[in-house]
Specification:
This protein has 142 residues and is of the alpha/beta class. It is built from four helices and seven strands. The longest helix has 19 residues.
Length: 142
């Protein structure tokens, strides 16, 4: 007798859409960031109450600015981001950047842990230099 059940079995084929979803999300992030402004124009950031310092570097206007508010919200190119997912969009911007400099524009009352996680994401994304934005103070006279 011939085994007919083997011939009658249906074969199921599945398409794995996980790589397609990953590519789509990366493209979405790229389009969101580049659609707003060109890389050289992403310098404004969110207004925060920065801490003061006597010694402060002057910005050239070609840095990538990541802002951290007092409430702990993180903004990249004026788009609110989850600090845990900041590395990938930063890496995309740093690839296009000539200076590869990231400035963390953090409020003086922002949680230290959030600022450190932003700085860590910037370093892992490939930033050559990392600065913390401050307000210029006048030196005290002795």
């Amino acid at each position: 007798m011939i085994n007919t059940t083997r011939n009658k079995r249906k074969q199921f084929f599945e398409i794995n859409i996980t790589p397609l979803t990953d590519v789509a999300l990366v493209l979405l992030i790229i389009f969101m960031i580049t659609a707003m402004q060109k890389i050289g124009e992403i310098t404004e950031g969110i207004k925060v109450n920065r801490p003061g310092a006597v010694m402060s570097d002057v910005q050239s206007g070609k840095e990538i600015i990541v802002s951290v508010t007092e409430q702990g919200k993180v903004f990249l190119a004026n788009i609110e981001m989850d600090p845990r997912n900041l590395m990938e969009p930063l890496a995309l911007l740093l690839v296009q950047s000539k200076t590869k400099i990231v400035v963390v524009n953090a409020d003086k009352k922002a949680e230290h842990g959030t600022v450190v996680s932003v700085m860590d994401a910037a370093r892992r994304a490939g930033a050559d230099k990392l600065f913390v934005s401050t307000t210029q103070l006048k030196p005290e006279k002795k």
